[in-house]
Amino acid sequence: MFHFLKSLFKTKTRFLEETDTMKKFLIVGLGNVGDKYTETRHNIGFKTLDALASKEDFTFETVKLGDVGTYKIKGRSILCLKPSTFMNLSGKAVHYWMEQEKIPLENVLVITDDINLPFGTIRLKTKGSDGGHNGLKDIQNILQTTSYNRFRFGVGADFGQGRQIDYVLGEWNEDEKKELPERFEKASALIKSFVLAGVNITMNEFNGT
What we know:
Layout: H1 2-8, E1 24-29, H2 44-56, E2 61-63, E3 66-73, E4 76-83, H3 90-101, E5 108-114, E6 122-125, H4 134-143, E7 149-154, H5 164-168, H6 174-197, H7 199-206
Parallel strand pairs: 1-4, 1-5, 5-7
Antiparallel strand pairs: 2-3, 3-4, 6-7
């Protein structure tokens, strides 16, 4: 009886049934947990995945190191992750779910805010520095490489000297809020293309749009 009850409450440790590793993808949206961060620029990764979940009709559940949701498209299995480790420890969650689901690095996509791009501009890169972003810095340190796919979502840089933290942890202005739904549609299309067409075709089609 004890073992039966234990099995009922055992935490699910694997979500993707696919056995072909090249058909499995990990899409990571970076952000900070907590209501006070929900509508901030720094949480664009979380918001992008929330929009994707609405479009693809899947839900998230809270598990080890984050909230996870899955969906399938044309034979590919996708696991979406919103780390619960706070931004500067994101690498721990990314590494754990890569290992847990046996997802190769080339099939990982990390969504992050970027102050070096104008608001709403999206850019996909296969490698690069962390650019001072603490989430990317930790992922780079944990994975021991700068060669991983990152989806940079521009949030602009409308702040004065020494005000960067206040800006990225600040909420969207009214004009930005009106434009976000269309940007999320574009972001969802980029993710779909990344999964189905690959990173190079996706970069050619979406970068700078």
